[in-house]
Design goal:
7 copies of one chain form a homoheptamer. In chain A, the strands form 3 sheets. Chain A has a 6-stranded antiparallel sheet, with no helix packed on it. In chain A, strands 3-4 form a two-stranded antiparallel sheet. A two-stranded antiparallel sheet of chain A has the order 6-7. Chain A is globular and about 35 Å long. Chain A has strands spanning about 1-5, 10-15, 20, 25-30, 35-45, 45-50, 50-55, 65, 70-75, 80-85, 90-95. The termini of chain A are far apart. By secondary structure, chain A is mostly beta strands. Chain A has no helices and 11 strands. Chain A is about 0% helix and about 50% strand. In chain A, a hairpin with a 2-residue loop joins strand 9 (about 70-75) and strand 10 (about 80-85). The interface of A and B includes residues 3, 4, 72, 75 and 77 of A. Chains A, B, C, D, E, F, G: This is Co-chaperone GroES.
Chain lengths: ~100, ~100, ~100, ~100, ~100, ~100, ~100
């Protein structure tokens, strides 16, 4: 099954917690805080939402940081997703070419 | 009797909890959480709602995910329905052709 | 005496709890929950209400479902009424010709 | 002294509790609930109020029903009045010619 | 020193509690409730306030009734004043010529 | 260092509590309430703030009264300042020529 | 990795607490309050945000004071950042040439 978000909603899939420390060592696992990073899975069409014109600024595949207290957790086909309004996405995380 | 929703309201009928796990096994029953999936039964006309122009984006028969804390539960002819504002519908669930 | 509602207010008279079960048996009485069904008794003129243009969509005689926590209960000539804003009416209940 | 309300304010004088039962008997007195009926004593000019154009729809002498939790009680020359915004007036009570 | 209020603010000086009863006897003193009457001491220029055009409708010297829970108490040169927004002034109290 | 406020913010420096009583005696010190008087240290540019056009009405050097519960206290170079929105400034205090 | 803020968001990096007292002595360390000063690391594009046109007024490298209770703390590559809306930035801190 596929989730098709309405309006300015965005479907996110939380990233698994493989956090790279500054010196390059990868921590996989449990003793870390749950990161607020997620991958964009589906993006609503935007347009008039609650009387305001919204242009979508994220796209499928983007890695984003979202607001800790935002969003609805849903479970489809055994997979967990978070559905947020685009306004609850704080920033896109881009990889720098080193 | 038939419910004819006003404005941007949508009448939903909660889906029965037949959840398919990823590997295809169907779980029917009780030990699961109540899903937030519902089928659209009737759709209001939209138009000017609370001073804002609303276009309806769901239609009768759509399977949708709605916000956990939204909606009014009503009982008509012994059947339970949920009446939500379209804004409380997060996403349409589409079947993928595998 | 007659109640003439202002703006987008609607005067409702709660329906007596004669609920028909699916199989056609009528339950009259006490052990049931109070239904949120009501009959429209009088309808305000609509127009500019709180800076927003409101068109009235219900009419005298309509049977409606209204939001559980809405409305002001008033008593006129010993009869109880509920005065709601049209926005608190969720749906019109229509009889289907079977 | 005379109260001249500003904007969309309306000065009300609560009706004395002479409630006529359906069969025509007048109850005068104490064992009744305080009615929310009041007589309009003075009406503000309306116009731009809080950035919204308001047209006054009640006039001096109207008998009205107002919202239970609204209004400011004031005492002028030993008389008690209630000052409400017009928006807190639910309906005008009209006498029917029987 | 002089207070020059900004925007739609009004500086009030609470009236001393010389309340005249209906029969004309003046009560001066302590056993009474504190009246919400005040005299207008200074009036802001109005204009665009919080994105809304406000026209001032009270003037210096007016005796007004203001909302019980509104306003900021300030002390200038040992004198106490209340600064309210015009919207918190309910009515102007005018003397009737008897 | 210098604070350059954004939008409709105003940087204030609280006045020291040298309050002159009506008869001209200066009270310096501790047994008094903290006054809400402050001197304007820097003024934001105004303009579009939160979707509303704001014109700044105070200027550097003005002595003002501000709302008790408003503002952010900040410390720069060991000096304490209060940053408020212009809307939280109630009045300008002007010296009268006696 | 690089944070690219959306809309009117600004990515801040909290300044280390090297506070210079008025007489020029530098306090480095622990017994001080955490300052609300931060350096701007990245600035969103502004534009239509929540139905309002926002022009960004801070730029990368600015030293700013932000509102104590605002913002989301995020951790990227082991570094902590604060993401605020521009509206939560109170003032830019400029160095004076002495």
């Amino acid at each position: 099954m596929k989730l098709v978000p309405l309006g300015d909603r965005v479907v996110l899939k939380q990233c698994e917690a493989e956090e790279t420390t500054k010196s390059g060592i990868i921590l996989a696992g449990s003793a870390q805080e749950k990161p607020q990073e997620a991958k964009v899975v589906a993006v609503g069409p935007g347009g008039m939402v609650d009387g305001k014109e919204v242009t979508m600024q994220v796209k499928e595949g983007d890695k984003v940081i979202y607001s800790k207290y935002a969003g609805n957790e849903v479970k489809v086909d055994g997979e967990e997703y978070i559905i947020v309004k685009q306004n609850d996405i704080l920033a896109i995380v881009e990889n720098e070419s080193n």
